[in-house]
């Protein structure tokens, strides 16, 4: 019953936001780097911080005691991201808020107490890098929602069947938010896009859960629950550096962009393939008893090889 009420509240929140976005012209206009061709409402990913607020309302005492640091970090990064969706902010302002949010996230997960001091800068780099990877990959219909659904579903399975590392509802609520968001986004003509508030918001939540899991188990292999995003972003950044491009400028060099823009493959097909690939990796990752370095090689060598071969063929085909 509780989850049915949550879904209804999330739907109402989305419909209310659509009216606000339409009134104040919060839209995404296509440009030469876009993978879409029509004006669409931006910021639909506001559903993710809303889902956390609803989580707090249904679990008030626990939220105040255990989730206040996560909540402050999530709301801070979502607020600055939403403002950036509406009007462009300087990198310094955004990065400052990101750093504060990551500090709160690491405090929430107990990383400061469990990890030696010298590892803290590494954690900052990894988390901020992963957050930005989430943002970079949010470019076509269904990508952020489906991929996050796979990550969250995998975490829910681990939490229930392998080792309990957090409250079940803390995973279920963002899953419900993804389902409602996909109802409006997983379409040929999306009703809304996630925007930075969505990609950063759900990215922050997923990363928080993975960090909790790693702190609980000391199994660093679980960062590979996001390995498809990781491989795509690292190889694309490497390519752009080799081409002497500014990696902070928008571009269309990601493999999913080449499939969607040049090859004209359906956004929904591309997003589904990415999600299915990550699901297969997660199944192997969760049940494998191999050493971490062997798991990394098994995942990265074939996946990276397939990625490079596909991109090479597409660039050759379209003279890119």
TrEMBL record:
Species for this entry: Chryseobacterium herbae
Recorded topology in the membrane: Multi-pass membrane protein
UniProt-listed Pfam families: Glycos_transf_4
Entry keywords, A to Z: Cell membrane, Membrane, Transferase, Transmembrane, Transmembrane helix
Official protein name in the record: Glycosyltransferase family 4 protein
Listed InterPro entries: Glycosyl_transferase_4
Superkingdom: Bacteria
Matching CDD domains: GT_WbpL_WbcO_like
Residue stretches spanning the membrane: 6-27, 39-60, 66-83, 95-112, 118-134, 141-158, 170-186, 193-216, 222-243, 264-286, 292-310
Cell compartments where the protein resides: Cell membrane
